[in-house]
Amino acid sequence: MISFLISIASLILGYLIYGKVVERIFGPDGRQTPALAHPDGVDYIAMPTWKVFMIQFLNIAGTGPIFGAIMGAWFGPASFLWIVFGCIFAGSVHDYLSGMMSLRNDGAGLPELIGKYLGNTMRIIMLVFSLFLLLMVGAVFVFSPAAIMSGIGSHSPVLPEFLGNIVLWFVVIFVYYLIATLLPIDKIIGKIYPVFAIALIFMAIGLFVALLIKLPSIPEVWDISNMDSWMSSQSQNGTDLLGVKDYLKANTLFPAMFITIACGAISGFHATQSPLMARCLKSEKLGRPVFYGSMITEGFVALVWAAVSSWFFYSGGWREVLPPETLNEFMAQSANADGKTLIQYFNPPLVVRFVCTGWLGVFGGILAMLGVVAAPITSGDTALRSARLIIAEFFKFDQKPILKRLMVAIPMFVTVLLLLIWQISYPNGFNVLWQYFGWSNQTLSVFTLWTITIFLYKYKKCYWITLIPAIFMTVVSATFIIQQIIS
Fold it and tell me: What sign has the CA pseudo-torsion 136, 189, 377, 267?
């Protein structure tokens, strides 16, 4: 695990050294923050720094650094390099500076910031683009937790049978979304988010300790060009159980890996979330620990899961943690001509469940459930809250009266409901929506990075820190969508 441990150390040094460099380039000062300048009791509320950090971390994380890192492991140890360099030099810079720009612009949302520095046309384009992304997040993160909870209800000897109804869970999650979107940020989000964030961090730390105790042999960075021996180790009787070779034929490392691993490296979605916490900070000088620090923490979670999934897929870890009946079922179907490979059979939620339960016991199973159920729900509600604020900001709607919040929220929820109905009725709806979510997510980071670059250039600051990531992510997003169109 040499590459993994060096990667962890690099993230820490990245925060201590490069994070300080970025902070000095921006130059936070003692001016009054929006939360103190004009608190409204709904969205502009000064909160304790530790709580703001936890909310920001859960807002940007959700299941992203877990699922993305698990799927990113299929590209081999190159995922370690992307998480480290992407997190330090792109993602953390993107999150910190978008948050600080919001602070300097009275807590403005992303479309308003883009409009100010790239023009009104781009403002309108980004309004539509941001809302499309945020509403997709709401739709995607209703479906997966509802499906999981309905499965538990239908198979549990303890829970009532009616809890297996997926429509019931859709309704429950939608009602929660509506309440969390409308109520003041300190009433629900400010109270439950820190608890879920702590659980997510604790799960990552528990797995990190388990990795240190087990010290499994996993592919190193210097194995990138020679992964054949690792792949062949998961073959049996001439059958490729792993399935990575076929996967890489359809998904080339560039640009697919940089789209697959978004959270944990860089994610445009984060720039829609940073303004939420920019409205709650007491001082500009808290920006580095909150914005840059929460992204580094997310990078840590992603690295842990990248290492765990490397062990699961390449080192035969699946044989160790799978229950005997599941192991036998997989091996039996793999012998068929149309049998599924490891990466087809064991999707990210299953990897999370089996590893957490196998390594951390019953408590690990509870943490895994929080990861695959609670985390996407909390990403969905803040996405819709951001969408409400972006629409209200564009049309100059005062959000203090509850009726005006409802005027904005109801059309949003109708749109999310229609997206949800479409992905349920269309056989491949979820996968299609997820692919476009991944591309639009990284494309949004491109526009954010270019906006920050113009901001830094305008105020005669070192703009190279965002210009280079902006060029790189532009090439990634453009290449990916061209590949999709050609194929």
Answer: positive
148-155: list long-range contacts, CB under 8 Å, 24+ apart: 148/349, 148/372, 148/373, 149/373
Three-class secondary structure of residue 242 per DSSP? coil
> Which residue reads 């304790």 in tokens?
48
pLDDT at 221: 94
Two tokens, residue 90:
């792109």
Which CATH number goes with the domain that contains 93? 1.20.1740
Q: Dmax over Cα atoms in the chain, in whole Å? A: 69
As given in the structure block, the two tokens for residue 273 are: 């979330």
The count of domains in the chain is 1
Nearest C-alpha neighbor of 165 from the set 142, 178, 146: 146
- Residue indicated by tokens 């009791």: 41
Q: What is the rounded CA–CA span in Å between residue 367 and residue 195?
A: 12
Distances (CA, A) of 153 to 12, 320, 410: 42, 27, 30
Locate 362 and state its tokens: 């019953």
Nearest to 197 by CA among 61, 363, 368, 306: 61
Whole-number pLDDT of residue 12: 97
Residue 428 has pLDDT above 60, yes or no: no
Which residue, among 136, 88, 435, 410, has the nearest Cα to 272 in the 3D structure? 136
Cis ω before 255 (30° cut-off from 0)? yes
Query: CA distances (Å), 318 to each of 20, 260, 315, 331, 337, in order?
Result: 41, 22, 8, 12, 22
User: What's the CA gap between 267 and 113, in Å, rounded?
Assistant: 17
Instruction: Report how far apart the first and last C-alpha atoms of the chain are (Å, whole number).
Output: 37
Confidence class for position 188, pLDDT limits 50, 70, 90: confident
Alpha-carbon distance 456 to 331, whole Å? 56
Buried/exposed code over 170-202 (b: 16+ C-beta within 10 A; e: otherwise):
bebbbebbbebbbbebbebbbeebbebbebbbe
**Spatial CA neighbour of 53 closest among 276, 331, 384, 259:** 276
Give the SS3 label for residue 239.
strand
Which residue type occupies 306?
A: A
- Domain of 276 in residue numbering reads as 2-486
- 68-90, pLDDT tens digit by residue? 899 898 899 999 999 999 999 99
* C-alpha distance from residue 463 to each of 22, 90, 450 (Å): 10, 13, 10
Rounded Cα–Cα distance for residues 408 and 402 (Å): 10
Q: Which residues pair with 239 in a beta bridge?
A: 236
Find all residues with CB under 8 Å of 44, minimum gap 6, and list them: 34, 35, 38, 107, 279, 280
Structure tokens at 167: 């429509």
The C-alpha atoms of residue 460 and residue 454 are separated, in whole angstroms, by 10
